[in-house]
Amino acid sequence: MTTLSPSGPIAGQRKVRRATMNDVARLAGVSIKTVSRVVNDEPGVHPSTAERVLAAIDQLGFRRNLSARNLRRGSSTGTIGLVLEDVGNPFYSGVTRAVEEIARLRGRQVISGSSDEDPGRERELALEFCSRRVDGLLIVPAGLQHSYLVPEMRAGTPVVFLDRPAGDVVADTVLVDNIGGTVEAVTHLAAHGHRRIAFLGDAPDIFTANERLRGYREGCVRTGIGYHEELVAMGPHDEGSVAATLRRLRTLREPATAIVAGNNRITVHILRSLAGSAERPALVGFDDFELADLLSPPVTVIAHDASALGKAASDLLFARLDGDNSPPRRVVLPVRLVPRGSGEVHA
Amino acid sequence: MTTLSPSGPIAGQRKVRRATMNDVARLAGVSIKTVSRVVNDEPGVHPSTAERVLAAIDQLGFRRNLSARNLRRGSSTGTIGLVLEDVGNPFYSGVTRAVEEIARLRGRQVISGSSDEDPGRERELALEFCSRRVDGLLIVPAGLQHSYLVPEMRAGTPVVFLDRPAGDVVADTVLVDNIGGTVEAVTHLAAHGHRRIAFLGDAPDIFTANERLRGYREGCVRTGIGYHEELVAMGPHDEGSVAATLRRLRTLREPATAIVAGNNRITVHILRSLAGSAERPALVGFDDFELADLLSPPVTVIAHDASALGKAASDLLFARLDGDNSPPRRVVLPVRLVPRGSGEVHA
DNA sequence: GGCCACTATGACAACGTTGTCCCCCAGCGG
DNA sequence: CCGCTGGGGGACAACGTTGTCATAGTGGCC
Fold it and tell me: Which Gene3D superfamilies does this entry report, sorted A to Z (chains A, B) (predicted)?
């Protein structure tokens, strides 16, 4: 194995101009159009000519400029844009992976970015993607205003909202059954004898957090254990605030004996806070996560599949790209309670 | 809050042609060049003119076409390409996040794709990114041949290899101290009295797997416990093969009392296989992972920071983009053993 | 031998933007 | 009143590619 040094810029030389079809054409002694034909596998090029062209391409290291191509062709840049909350969050990286998979099958590249729950950033990313003329847009909304997308949608860019609905446009949306999930969580805990069930959720202006709170409340009402303000703690949570909340819940006149966690991050914060304490409340977490089954006790969760979400949204998007122009759809994916132990502790 | 329906394609109408600078110019009663000036915040436009232009832009929902811009300007498409093994793997999604962060600070978008350890796919992705004229390329190599990148590097596209070195080109590379890590793992286990330490690693043609094996071997030699073929199991591992290997290790004439796991996936497979069994060998895993500290016993790991890796690589890439043309560098990031319990079990 | 059909190839414009260069006009000094 | 200056704005070409249309050559057929 010889080690090639690319003897070019790396060694501090001037940048070499990139070869264009023109250069290839000159070298191969044909017209630029013929090069184009070869590059695009168009018929009607004599095999021997094609061979000369290919040799020239190889020699020059030619690679066609997709900016130029996209400009000329007008339609389809072969990319789709994905705006999510945080690629670093395993849930969203699962979504990303699924989207990438579907996109690959359909010959598209994914461009993604994290909004970090900042509506301004979400908008910035989405519009940036539009400037790049993505063929479609998948968005996990951070904000409630999406009218900024109207011109893009009018111009034919399909948009699918993911995990949360758009604020003020009508568009395809894929959600999970947040309400059903927390109703089930509460029901499950109540069935195991718990009457004092707390809910720790994310900031209430986040759609899913709010929905899950609603489900929690409905569960409390349906099971007859009643809804008690003091058992609810919403808001952006970090390790510290979760620990503080747990302390508070323990010292109530009637302490909480069970907890529903509003998302995977909160579940983990809770687990970490509880680590080592002998007495631990029953726990059901929203979102499944790796290793939940290996903890002791294993963590009961409301599971919903990141891949399924990504796949459903991509499928919807590609259906639009294929010309489906039926009215906007709202898909709600089911969740399921996975009993593992942590929620089956008796009160 | 009113609900806007984008009354366009969604409702099944014809696609509206997207507004161009020409349309804006016509509407604003100026030349296209003036529109360009406004859009690019160039000086020399009368405030009142600029206002008219901005109004027209708003009215038409104009968004400049970056394909055209990039084509015309020739340099910098404002994107960087990231080829990794699997965005769905938490380790790589951490890398992605870090890269995205740095890119954002430098005004770049990240385009990423997963190679799934397939060299062909890696190449395909990298070249696709080159066709899109990314400003730079970050690659977690799947294969050993990277001479296909030479024309690109010559043309001035900086390339940084991540986590593994390139096969046959000289280029910037950021690695972690794989050898040092497994040496330390073995040393740690030996210090706790283990003499029969097994190693479960990934396929040996993967650079990191091979390095870690080397470290393991060196650790065995240095500690004087000796290297025994029968204690090593390389190869692509899944849940089943790991379980089988563990059974084999248990039934040796001198069974293994400790295990070093070659990466986070293997560690998890091991944990899952061991779940429930009373007697468990000591374990040190390569790669830290979320909740490792909450398992029982908590899992001792060789930790290295995905963000640090992503950041180091991006920093290197942007240094190149800023004109640094010193000889290619190889950065090796330190790892550290995080003792948590699973590796401190006495033999 | 003349005409046609067909294959292989090329000339040219156009995609939407920006860099270069030029022009117009108001204001000002001589 | 003239020439000069500088701010504001426009005409035009060019980026690299592809779609449209034209054309040269070749062989077959009456």
Answer: 3.40.50.2300, lambda repressor-like DNA-binding domains
